[in-house]
Amino acid sequence: MKTAVGFGALPSFRWLAALILPTAAGLHFLAASESDYLPDDGERTIVPYHLDAKGENQAEAMARFVTGVLLEESDGPEKAIESYRQVLDLDPGYKKLAIEVAYDYVRRGETTEAIGILKDTIKAKPEAPEPALALSSIYLRHLNKPDLATRYAESALKSDPGRFAAYESLWEIAQYQGDAAGCAKALDRALRAKTDNANFWLQLAEFIANSNEGDAFADSKTAAKLTVCLDKAAKASARDGETLVRIADFYLLNRQYSQAAGYYQKAAALKPALPNLNEKLAGALIELGRKEEAIPVLEKIVAGNPLALQAYDQLYRLYEERGDHEKALTRVEQALIIDKTNPLRHHDLLLLLLRTGRIDSAIARAADARKLFPQSPFFTYIEARALAAAKHNDEAMRTFEQALVEAAAIDPKLLNGLFYFDYGCAAQQAGRLVKAADLFQKSIELDPKNPEAYNALGYMWVEQKQNLAEAESLIRKALTFDPDNASYIDSLGWCHYQSGRYDAALAELLRASKALPEPDSVIFEHVGDTYRALNRTAEAVLYWQKAAQLDSGNKALLVKIDAATEKVAQKPQ
C-alpha cells in the first residue's frame, strides 16, 4: 500500500498536479479527497489511501512523466525519451505525448518504435484522429508507403469528418503519387464536408488558394470554390467578430478589397475594439478608392491612439487629395510631434505651409529643418522657394545658388526640371531676366514635358517685347499639353497684342477669361488694354474695373480707368 506524506517531505501535491494535469489528460487519483492531503495543525500526517490497478498505472505514469520533464529541462530531450516511453507503456491513450515521442523516435531513425507507439495509441483511443494522421505522415514521408498512408488518413477522416488535416493528408498523398485527379477528389470531398466549423472552412480556403499558382481569384472555378468556403465560414460565425476579421483578412490578402471591407465593417459592428481592425478597414477602403469613407475610420484610429503615425500619414494624403490643405497641415504637424526624425514629414509640412500661404512660417521651419538635416539640400531649396514667395529676392537668389551647390555635391537628382523652373521664377522676380531665361531653358531641357516652363519663358519674353516669334512658339508648345489652360491662352493673346495683332489678341484673351476657374485681374486687365487698342473705350473701362475689384492696390490700373473715364466724359454727345 502506498502512502502520501504531508507538507515538508516532498513537493506539494498541488504543485505536482498543476504541472501534470494540464498535459497528462486522463491521469487522476482515486479514493482520496483534497482534505486528506492537508496537514493537521502544522504537523505531518501520513494519510493512507488505496488505488486500484488503473490508478496504480496512472500514478506511476505521472511519476514517469515528471521524471521526463525534469530530464528534458536538465539534460535535453534525448535523456527524457525513455521516461516518456514508459509513460506510454503505462497509459498509451495519452495521444499528445505519444505523437511527440513518436516523432522523436523518427528523428533518431527508429521508425519501428514510432509506429508501435502510435498503433498502441490508436487502439487505446480509436476515436482520436491525431495518432492516425501522424502515422499516415510517417508512412508517406519516411517509409514511402502511400497505400498505408492512405489507410490511416481515411481512418482519421472516419473518426472526425470535420477535421481538415485528414483531407489535407489525402491531398498530399495524391500529390506525392502525381495523381492530379486524386488531389482534386480530396478537395472535392472537403468541400462536401458536413460541418459548421468556421475554422475548417478557412483552412480549406487557405489551402485552395495556396495550391493555386498566381492570383487565386483569377480562375473562375477556383474563385467559386473559395467563395463557397468563405460563405460557409461566414455563416458559421455570423456573430463572431474575430472570425469575420479572419475572413476579411483572407480577402484582403488576395486583393478582393470589396469583400474584405464588407467583412471588416461587419466585424466592427460586432466588436469595434478588435486590434488593427480599423487600420485594415481603412486600407481596404483606400484600395477601393472609397477615400471619403476611409477618413472617418482613420480619424477614429487617431482618436483612440494619438500615436498612430501611419493613420496620420494616411489622413494627410487623403486630405491633400480632397484639397483640404488646412486639415492636411494639422495631421502633418501632429505626426511631427511624435516623430521629428523623419525628413519626409518635414518635407510635407513645408510644402503645405507654402500651399496655404504661411510663408513666414515656411521660412522659419525650413531653416530649422536645414539644421536638423544638414545633408539634405532639399530643405535649402524649399527655404529658397519660401524666400522668393516672400519677395526677399536677393536672399532667395543666394539661397537658390547655395541649394544648387549642395545638391550637386550631395543629391544631384534634386537638380531636375522643377528646381530650375523655381529658380528661374525667382530670378525673373528679382529682375535678372537673362539668368531667368537660361534657367527656364535648362528646365525645358531636363523636363521637356513641363508646359509651365515653356509658358514662363515665352510670357517673360512677351512682356519684354523680345523674341516674340520664339515666344509664340513656346506658348503654343505649352498649349499642346494643356489646350484649355487660361494662363497659357492669355499668354498667347498677350503675344498677339505685343505684336500688334489686336483682333487676334482680343479673341484669345476673351477665350482666356471664359476658361478661368476663378476671376483673374491680369487677364481682365489684358482684355481691357486690347479693347483700348481697338478704340473700344467703354469695354476697356468695364474690364479694367473688373480687374480693379480683384487688385485694388494696382495704382497704374486706377490711372488707366480715370484717364479713360475722363476721355469718355469729354467725348461729344
Radius of gyration: 41 Å
CATH architecture of the domain at 195-289: Alpha Horseshoe
CATH superfamily of the domain at 195-289: Tetratricopeptide repeat domain
The main sheet comes to: 2 strands, antiparallel
* Main CATH class of the domain at 195-289: Mainly Alpha
Proportion of residues in β-strands = under 5%
- What is the topology, as strand order, of the major beta sheet? 1-2
Query: How many extended strands?
Result: 2
Q: In whole angstroms, how far apart are the ends? A: 139 Å
Query: Residue-averaged pLDDT, rounded?
Result: 86
CATH topology of the domain at 195-289: Serine Threonine Protein Phosphatase 5, Tetratricopeptide repeat
Count up the helices. 30
Summarize the amount of helix as a percent range.
Answer: over 70%
The coarse overall form would be: elongated
Structural class: mainly alpha
Low-confidence runs of at least 5 consecutive residues: 1-38
What report would you give on this structure?
The termini are far apart. This protein is mainly α and 573 residues long. The chain has helices spanning 13-20, 53-75, 77-90, 95-107, 111-124, 129-141, 146-159, 164-176, 180-191, 198-211, 220-236, 241-253, 257-270, 277-287, 291-304, 309-322, 325-338, 343-355, 359-372, 378-389, 393-410, 417-429, 433-446, 451-463, 468-481, 486-498, 502-515, 521-533, 537-550, 555-570, and strands at 3-5, 46-48. The chain contains 30 helices and two strands. Helix 15 packs antiparallel against helix 16. The protein has a domain at 195-289: Serine Threonine Protein Phosphatase 5, Tetratricopeptide repeat (Alpha Horseshoe), CATH 1.25.40. Residues 1-38 have low confidence and may be disordered.
